[in-house]
Amino acid sequence: MRLLGGQRAWIVQRLSALYLLLCVVGGAAWLLLYGRPGFEGWRGFVAHPAGALALLLFYTALFAHAWVGLRDVVLDYVHPFGLRAGVLALVAGGLLALEGWTVLVLAGAHSVGN
Amino acid sequence: MRLSVYRFNPEAGTAPFMQDYEVPLQHGDKMLLDVLVRLKAADDSLSFRRSCREGICGSDAMNINGRNGLACITPIADLREPVTLRPLPGFPVIRDLVVDMSQFFAHYRAVTPYLINDDPVPARERLQSPEQRAELDGLWECILCGCCSGFCPSYWWNPDKFLGPAALLQGYRFIADSRDTATAARLEFLDDVYRLYRCRSIMNCTEVCPKHLSPSHAIERIRLKLTKHSL
């Protein structure tokens, strides 16, 4: 697998989609079976290491999936090199910032839970 | 039959326009190409390609009522009038319905569409089992008409970098060939964000292929081969 080939992104896109699908279907099934968890239920879920890890993986998969999709749109439609590099940098920076924010939120919730 | 035909003559220096025609049908006219040949006799300034008139050479590929196809195997009975004829989308127009296919064939050449095998030549032919030969069905029949690539938005956006469904189908034809020994090099060439991975599997190529082939399926098989190859 080449670093700058197309296969890596293609695999990331499919694996992240699979995880997101499992989370959405599993989450919907859980809500149907057990009803709304309420504030305390959500806080307990996020405070538990497994819950926090599952949520972190969910958002990481979401941002990775979004990166591949947005990168594809940029590669298709934005052709001038400088503009393309700028837009890609903006998208990457934005998604990394969102990932960092997610980590902060989850870490904060975990420390409050403890 | 009423026709609305894309006209463009770069030597005239005028913008492209649609010209309306009324072509009287005669006994024996079955396919759109029959009408075009009759039209050409009436207006010899109209340019289009055609050769075998039986869906083998792929010369008369064009956009017919918004859908790419071969004029010679498109029954006129199935066409809504006025029949709108345009050149293949995404290809530079040389004149009227004639497009420049230089880039298309450059992509075809890029996939080295021939058997590569440096092993000593056997006394008789390189044998294949019936199962190995069956792997090539649905691939070798491609006539390179360009209908698929001309109906692929990814090819429209990056015609110079994305190889397009036709070239990728031809590439897979040799990847799938049990006699070919250059599979690794072929896969490495295709592992590129543009050459192969601009494809989004929207399957327009499969939808319009006049030979009922599935370039989209071939592209998916290349991706799976690449994945297996890298593990």
Outline of this structure?
The complex is a heterodimer of chains A (114) and B (231). Chain A has 114 residues and is mainly α. Chain A has four helices and no strands.
Can you put this structure into words, describing what you see?
The complex is a heterodimer of chains A (114) and B (231). In chain A, 88% of the residues lie in helices and 0% in strands. Chain A is mostly helical and 114 residues long. Chain A starts with 6 loop residues before the first helix and ends with a helix. Chain A contains 4 helices and no strands. Chain B is elongated, with a radius of gyration of 20 Å. Chain B is α+β, with helices and mostly antiparallel strands and 231 residues long. The longest helix of chain B is centred in the C-terminal third of the chain and has 16 residues, at 215-230. Classes of the chains: A mainly alpha (114), B alpha+beta (231).
Low-confidence stretches of chain A: none
Strand tally of chain B is 7
What is the makeup of the main sheet of chain A?
none
State the strand order across the main sheet of chain B.
2-1-5-3-4
Globular, elongated, flat, extended or rod-shaped: what is the shape of chain A?
elongated
The pair of chains with the biggest contact is: A-B, 13 and 17 residues
- How far apart are the termini of chain A? 42 Å
Kindly provide the radius of gyration of chain B, computed on alpha-carbon positions and rounded to a whole number of angstroms: 20 Å
Number of strands of chain A: 0
Q: Give the proportion of residues in helices of chain B.
A: 25-40%
What is the beta-strand fraction of chain B? 5-15%
State the secondary-structure class of chain A: mainly alpha
**Helical/strand content category of chain B:** alpha+beta
Discrete helix count of chain B = 8
Proportion of beta-strand residues of chain A: under 5%
Q: Give me the strand/helix succession of chain B.
A: EEHEEEEEHHHHHHH
Q: How would a textbook summarize the main sheet of chain B?
A: 5 strands, mixed
